[in-house]
Amino acid sequence: MDGLVQSVVYETSSPANIYSATVMRKVDGDQKIVMIASKKDIITLESKIIDDKVKTSIVELNFSNIPSNAEIISIHCINRCKEFDDFVFGITYALITENEDPLKAETYLNIYSGFPGSSLEAIMENCITLKLGFVPYQLNHSIYISESQKNGMWLLSGSDRKIHAYKIEEQEILGQNIEEYFIEFEDTKDSIVLCFGTKSFSNYKKRMSYYGCETGYLMFAIVDSEKNQILHRFLERYESPITVMQLFNINKKTVDLDNILSAVKDDFIPDYDTLDEKEQICLLVGSAVDNAVVYMNVLNNDLRNAITLTDSNRHQAIACALITDVNFDSKNEILLGTYGNYILNYVYENNNWVEQQQFDMRDSVYTICYLDIVGEGVNDVVVMSERGIHILKHEPKYIVEVLKNRLKL
User: Fold this and answer.
1) In sequence order, what are the residues at sequence separation of 6 or more whose Cβ sits closer than 8 angstroms to the Cβ of residue 404?
2) Whole-number Å distance between alpha carbons of 171 and 159
């Protein structure tokens, strides 16, 4: 996190949680963050130039069909198309009645969508709702193959110790048998799944899937997407709940004089549902008590080659993680957000993960995102803590030095 300074802090009215942020990724490369700022409020960040200065402010978003007594639990956004913007949002919430047992509250899943090119305002008004029979946790999506075609499906983990699958057909949310599409998620070891996800190979014929449980179980699998058949499956058991799992490539493509022309080609546009299987793929695992671990080169080593992120548990539970290139060296770094108020930054050096820096956020860290909220061409680290939203920006002189090196000046 060299060259990063905390520039903006917004206070929020009440704590959010680890499922509180999602990013709208437009096909032109622009991004917008959408966050649950409190138990009832959803906001975004917008920037404007006022008196030759960039001003970033909070803008409240009014998603329809969310009652006033609702407590929002999780949010997720997908762009259904790579050629033009076609966003869909999913939001889960519970209806809380005073003096009522929260475990008995009614819970719901809302799906918001529009037409290709619809504005966010239009999308927020077009809602379909499904009443749930469990307390929702993480809301996610995944890609499956049917008749050689890519299709998307909503996935949701719940207090009933299952991962649920949903399709949207004719303005209705329809539950599906998860084993018919994602066989690897059928058995969750009779435990609540706190985090899960999938990443496809670049041709979508195979996928890698994972989940982490409240009981400490974690699963990693390689699946034939066309046959919905598990090729390899591995289980581990930790002493505490699994709070974070992410698959990632170590190397990250960058633009310099040698590849700037190829940067405009479609195959250079990052697809957030895929990983490059020709590069080394790693699996990050973080838990509530133990040090975080990175399983290296999982396609060749399975879960046999583990590197511990030393002292990553010294600031209490690991609540969230971000894996991206924040120091512009063309390699991904790991940022861990902790319940003990710190962000820890690990870099890969000499075949080991080494802590480079820590950042005191003053409150528990729930989510970390990396995007260009200002439109200046440089990403910012956006952090949601227990009491507010923090924006960490790269120092201009640091960016200038990186640019000079890229342009070989």
Assistant:
1) none
2) 26
